[in-house]
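### Sample
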Amino acid sequence: MRMLLSYITAVLAGLGQIACAGNPLATNDQRDLDALAIDLSQSDAFDFLRDAARAKFISRLKKFGKPIDDDINSDIDVAIDELVFSSIQKAVNNDPAYPKVYWTDAPPRPDHWFGLSVPGGRYSYDNPDCIYRTIPISDKYKYKIHGRRAANAPLDVTFSLISNPNSQNTVSSLMGEDLQVEEDGSFTITISSEDSDSKNHIKSNWQAVQLFVRNNLADWNKDTPDELSVEIVDNKGAKPATNDTIINQAKTNLAESIFFYGFGALDVKTFLNPLNELQKPTQSQILGTLTTQASSFGHFNLAEDEAIVVTLSSGQATYWVLPVYSLGMVTHSPWENIVSFNSKQAKQNNNGTYTFVVSQTDPGVYNWANTTARTQGTIMGRWQGLSTEGDGTDGIEVSSSIVKLSDLPRILPEETVYVDAEQRQEQVQERIQGYNRIHFQ
């Protein structure tokens, strides 16, 4: 009864907004799946795994000598809460016979989102620029993905068939630059186990279980996610999943995530790298990375008067982003803190490179990545739109060094753009306005 009431409340609250919001993320399916995920998240079925996930993350931090203070404990609590909710979100949209388009790996959303208060579901290096959406698929069925692209399209778009919603290994993909879009912005993508001459076809196989869609928005005040809907060609005789099935799948997702993210992403990809240093990025196709993406992982421990100065180049990437994360691999309130820069937002050096200052204390530099008063955290830089033939990282360079804040004027390029307190506030307000436009309106 409680779930039915919450569902009805969501329907009544959302009907008017669906018609007038003009937000491609504000769909009936989104409303229904969010309401169901919220209701299922109240179950005590996740308590044991929630505690196990927290213990796992803390053990990894201690193994690598990370001091556990109040900030770290708080950050891990946030990361685990969002990891649990993300596991439920993956499960509520996991029926390939009844597929829906679902926006996941998203920040917490306020009460005016269909009258719901939706918890955050970010995990394992969320990207503040990216709108992630999922569609369950099976090679037993044929699908049509209908879309419409706005005039201010995302800078980078990918449609990836993956073999596991937690490890996200890529089976096949369609890149945005290869997508055939009609003059009115509409497009249709077909998915099946059959071959096709269509440019907009993705071939599935027995491994593929989900279409994972990324829309990377570089200009938050202009770029708009694609409209997306899904049509299954024939699901005759298929019965929808029960709530018990969904809860069991969510528990499986959470158990796998504890391993893939607590060990794979945190240990292997991050903590094995040198402290306070970013390496040249490498390409991969596991743990959420794209075959056309290169990534550089790092972790830091900075005193209040210290900073990491990072200089990078774009190489052949069509889009890149450099965010700062907690030790739980989640960005700190990216809707109100400048914790990331992308290829559109950052100020460029005269030689075409970009230089950033990562620190607790505001250094008065435009390209400042704020650790939000945290002494410790992680970094994951991404470069996308790269070739999968040969080494796509050719031309991408990354250098980093730890310095005293007092030494920055001597170290930073002469053309570095500085800001005063008023200009910083304007920069933050522009970020808030852009983030709200995409995520909350």
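The chain is about 30% helix and 25% strand. This sample (DUF1214 domain-containing protein) is used throughout the tutorial notebook.
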